[in-house]
Amino acid sequence: MAKPSIPQGTRDFSATVVNKRNYILSTIKSVFELYGFEPLETPAMENLETLMGKYGEEGDKLIFKILNNGINNPKNIEKSTLGFEKALIGKSSIELTERALKYDLTIPFARYVAMNQGKLTFPFRRYQIQPVWRADRPQKGRYREFTQCDADIVGSTALLNEVELANIYHQVFMQLGLSGYTLKINSRKILSALAQLCGGAEKMMDITIAIDKLDKIGLDKVKEELTERNLSPEQISIIEKYLLIAGTNEEKLAQIKSLVGNLAIGKEGIGEVEFLFQQTSNVNLAIDFTLARGLNYYTGIIFEAKAPAEVQMGSIGGGGRYDDLTSLFDVPDIAGVGISFGVDRIYDVMEELQLFPNDIEKGSKAIFFNMGEAESLFAFSVMQQLRAKGVSCEMFHEFSKIAKQFSYAEKKNIEYAIIIGSKEIEDKQCLVKNLSSGVQEVVTLENLATFFNK
RNA sequence: GUAGUCGUAGCUCAGUUGGUUAGAGCAUCAGAUUGUGAUUCUGAGGGUCGGGGGUUCGAGCCCCCUCGAUUACCCCA
After folding, report:
1. What is the ipTM of this complex?
2. Which nucleotide is nearest to A433 (CA to C1')?
3. How far is the CA of A140 from the C1' of B62 (A)?
4. Mean pLDDT per 10-residue interval, chain A, length 454 residues
5. CA at A247, C1' at B29: how many angstroms apart?
6. Cis peptide, bond prior to residue A131, ω within 30 of zero
7. Which residue, among A104, A205, A102, A115, has the nearest Cα to A154 in the 3D structure?
8. What does pTM read for this prediction?
């Protein structure tokens, strides 16, 4: 047997990690519920067909595909061979894979809505907290299995939904102590207007991919990339003007109006951003017209949450409006908008900034030391009575040196040690020692539960 | 998919131009100590030096391949 290992980009979570993750997850969950979202869970795997083509060409490559069972069955050999031939030239083949691990929570949600449109009451608000998988090369803040926390509203076009979602971001990050976060917003409609000015809608992808990198590679490199993507110098100079928009949120709005405000779609997008900006004065909002977001199903407002500047980490959340997502499943006219939190990255950021509260890790409240065979049997029944009163406790079942029992308790962050030896059994009492302060007191067995529940 | 860096004990690492039987600290276990966490002392276990091949009288060290970790690019949470 080889050394035990786990797949690249996956992790085991120890008790302390689970406790810290749960702290984040329960914070997010409670805010979602506060805003009236109901839970949903979907399977780890979806039909490949459901996922393919929804995340762009790059996205398709990153979908984990599940090999069909029975491809070596004699009656399937012909089909399987055909499948391999397709796979070898880079095509996806249902002869080999019919299922895949989900890549995000939004598309499975859209599938769910399309399947259950008759049963759902619209507008439908759901939240979903589940792992997703991407066949990406792992690196800092990037894993192959990670957890997303999504909240979406479908069946409503009102911009107040976006306002609520922005407030959810704010409330969650504030509760977690990430007050230095920024919520970047833009509208795909503004990007679309820019594309119109520069050679038409089919240039949209090229333009957005390039300008999205502005703060990473700088203006000159973006222009180089645009040239590579066959944009003409005139078009690039328009984009340059667009990229040079700067200043406060108000100033940016004023500048964008003169650039794309006379196009219908541009005007619409600006109106959305302006509305959101006006209605969310308490949120750390930053209008950023270079924000694009890779997923190509977004159609309106888009969000991206950035970690506090002192931490080098990409986005810790994102989302936006998708006006015809369910039409991918032949169900038109269900508008939606949603956001997502990247728990794993939020975890890394909070760890780096030391934002986790100290009392997050707690083991049992008390441990009964083992003072001998007869004594431990007696102590066992005392322990069971204590548990019945709701006190979390455990016992050291091996008769070991006291020092060892102490060091066990210390490592497990147990608050109290309870010592019951022959003398204590006789006197119907026990010694309770606070392990952090070292203070020890005698408590009668009768009063033990009261001692802990006071 | 592309590129850089790194793999020596459970952990952190040292290991000289290639040279005897690969070391240290911490941790673990046992004893000094049969009911109170410390300190100190004594002792023990633990390694096919990531794996395979090559060069050499001789490889932890040099060369090739490979696997893993990590970081960056592409893309993204």
Report:
1. 0.81
2. B36
3. 33
4. 74 86 96 97 95 86 90 86 80 84 94 94 96 91 94 95 97 95 94 86 81 82 84 88 91 93 94 95 91 82 92 89 88 92 93 84 84 89 94 87 85 88 90 86 92 86
5. 66
6. no
7. A115
8. 0.88
